[in-house]
Write a structure and sequence with these properties.
CATH class of the largest domain: Alpha Beta
Number of domains: 2
Number of helices: 9
CATH superfamily of the largest domain: Metal-dependent hydrolases
Helix content: 25-40%
Strand order of the largest sheet: 1-2-3-4
Largest sheet: 4 strands, parallel
Structural class: alpha/beta
CATH topology of the largest domain: TIM Barrel
Order of helices and strands: HEHHEHEHHEHHHEEE
Shape: globular
Length: 212
Amino acid sequence: MYLSENEMPAILRESVQNDDQLLVHVVGDRTIEAVLNAMDATGGKDVWAKRRVRFEHADSLMPDLIPRAKALGVIVVQNPTHLGLNVKQWGPQRAHRNQPMRALLAAGIPLAIGSDGPNNPYLNILLASTYRGKPSEALTREQAVVAYTLTAAYAEFAEKDKGSLEPGKLADLAVLSQDIFRVSTDDLPKTVSVLTMVGGRIVYDANAVSTR
């Protein structure tokens, strides 16, 4: 850990005092447990449950820690490129429980997805929905898309403005070159945008669709 357990409560209190959303880059069950302990020591769920604390990566959020994370309102931002990390660093006895995804959703923990690697969301949707080596924790493509969009917006308190296409929200959208829910797995990363809108303005147009 880069911060000692004595330093953690002070940092957490500062985030509450400044009304800052807390984002922690946390990997490893010992480190995750230390942060959860610090959250309990600084008010527990009464303080943290609605503050949407983000655990970036949260690799090794083991089953025994999941209920505590749920009670404290933790959001997990996972990066599918991490799903292929070397098993040796976790040990064979813990590897099958490491890096949960489906289990987090089953427990009611919001799961967002980011890249932390190649900036190709369709590659990350592929990795999340196949989870090679641990298919029991794979998401459906629909779940992966929700994690990438609506839950990612929720993770930054922006779900009223973006994350889904609804009246009153920002018109941020992309028209894709293929149906990502039906295309073969191997072809998912080949998906590109043929029309991109940001805030209702067309910012990219491959002239593949009519905009009239």
